[in-house]
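Feature request, filed as a ticket because there's no other form

It would be nice if the structure record came with a short human-readable summary line next to the tokens. Right now we just get the raw output. Example of a typical job, pasted below so the devs can see what we mean:
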Amino acid sequence: MKYIEHIKSIILFLLVALSMTLTFLTWNYKPKYQTIEDIQVEHVALGEQKALNRVVKPYRLLFKGEENFTGTISSAVIDTLMDELSEMEANDLTLINHNLSDDKVNEMLRMPNRMTLFFQADVPIPTFAAMLPFHNTKDIPETTFDRIVIDWSYLSTTSQLQFLFINSDNRTLYRSVVKVDNKTSFKRNFIDQAAKFDNYMEIERPGTKSLYVLMNPTEVVPYTYSVGTISTELLKRILFTDPNIVQRNIESTQSERYTDGMSLMRLDMQNQSIHYVYPPAESLSPIAPSILMKDSMDFLNEHGGITEDYRLAAMNYQKHIIDYQMFFEDLPVYSDTTFTRVSTTWGDNRIFRYRRPYYVFDMNLPDDKAAKELASGPRVIEQIQSNLTTNINDINDLVIGYYLEHDANAELITLEPNWFMLTENGWERLTSEQVGGVEYGLE
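Raw output as currently delivered:
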């Protein structure tokens, strides 16, 4: 028993030594971690992003000189104007009139040294402020306009333009004075060029706004394109959170259905479009027009959804809907059988509905078709009054555009020039027949 205390001391020493060794090893232990490479998230896109001023822009510029109206729909001229606006600065907006009469609108456009920008849809002024910088953006009202009259009467002496923002439906008129740093450029690109643009005629109508139509017959080239399509797999990867669980169901020869249990995408072969909906996001909570515009554009630009020349065409901010109309060669494209718009409906912090064409123009196919001569605007007005039951006062605008059709196998796209009548019910093609060698667009 005399060795028990010695044995205890040795064991205690060993335990202390072991504890110190383990502690030392723990402090100095460096595990060999495998290097984790950065995960690259694949960005899926249909096309390139589009600048706001290439989507929200006028479809026509109308100039009033000392005597005559001239105008242009040229994207080159319009884009140059939109770019120059970004180099200017506007002062505060002033409400001039909240009960603007149609006669007053007509009078403003007739005054010399003025240019009018026509927009298809109401444009929120805060959205426009992202393209034309304002001196004070905090006080810009959440209001909209569909025409801007630019008065350059005092440009040479003051280096300033007067901007008149008109809302035809709400009958409001706002004014802002805009400083022009490069008045030489503005004069060269627009004022000096105005006389070279197409001649327009004002069609006066009692008690309502005038129409402005091309004075002379116009030749427009028809086109034929082979059809390309956006792949369903690409659309699935863009619109569904987990494309791997999406189920496909062929409903008919003209319709396919894709769903993940929460959202639905339907392919409409007849209209060559897809219609996506995410029901949980449905919301009618108020959204300011400028916020709605930003949400819609951000969504589309995230996946390059503005694949062709689509331009703002309609806005219903109460229902959160924004439509973008297809344009081709500076002309709007319409169709009875094929969808020619991109439409977004915003929901609760995300997209609720999304409808768009899934066809794209692939290759221009040369053919033997000659340019089509369309009648002058006054001639079209005459034929409408003679042959149609439509009241001339019910027409919002008369424009030249393209009528789009697919062939029976959806392998070719034809784009045929025509006059179109725009009313509250939408557009109507004025079909053509030959009279005296001139296609005047009615039958």
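Something like this underneath would help us a lot:
The chain has three domains: 52-208, 219-223+364-439, 226-361.
Residues 33-41, 434-443 have pLDDT under 50 and may be disordered.
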